[in-house]
Amino acid sequence: MADYVEGKRPVIEALKTDVPLKKILLADNARREPMIEDILRKARQRDLPVIEVPRAELDQKSARGSHQGVMAETKPFPYKGIGDIVGAAEEYAAEHDGRALVVVCDHLTDAGNLGAIIRSAESVGASGLIIPNKRSARVEASTYKSSAGAVAHLPIAQTSNIVNALNRFQKEGFWVCAATEHSSNEMWDVNLKGKIVLVLGNENEGVSHLVLENCDMAGRLPMLGNVESLNVAQSATACMYEWLRQNW
Prior knowledge:
By secondary structure, the chain is of the alpha/beta class. The protein is built from nine helices and ten strands.
């Protein structure tokens, strides 16, 4: 199933941030006002085909009804296999005193949060990120934007079974740590040295019970203010940098 970026400004942003695009669809009755002309100019610069179609066709393809007469069809994201992530992590560990980090997102729902997590993971030198292939946020246009381009530099894999993926890493000598507010241990008291898989939970429910049962350890970030928790992307960044601090 094709993914589309809808609307003038989002299409311009996709063209500016190098989201992999297949083609631009333009309503045959669209007014050639400045933003449309900007889209056409950027499409020519990227050698993207612009196809004029009846507005009714855009209406049918639109998920939100906000296409404003223009849509961009994206190319499928080139996901890696779990074995690719294992290999990249082992190679990184061999070159960096035995340390490596892999991030697993347990049914994250917001593609923007996913992008922010990818950005942080790439910044600390993580070897890869794993997401479920169903009922989960996936790499789309908003992910490219919130990752600030990091999505192009971090291997990302999909899995049909998170527990099986965790078990595979454990067999390769990785320790699996869940980031959860329900842990009695503060994250900086958890031993994150060496090869670590960091598991992040869903925005509303956190790490699922089944996944948590298959983790070796867990940690939480202390909350001293009035809010109960941080956004998952903020929490992920703090936990990843704690891994980096312990392995520095």
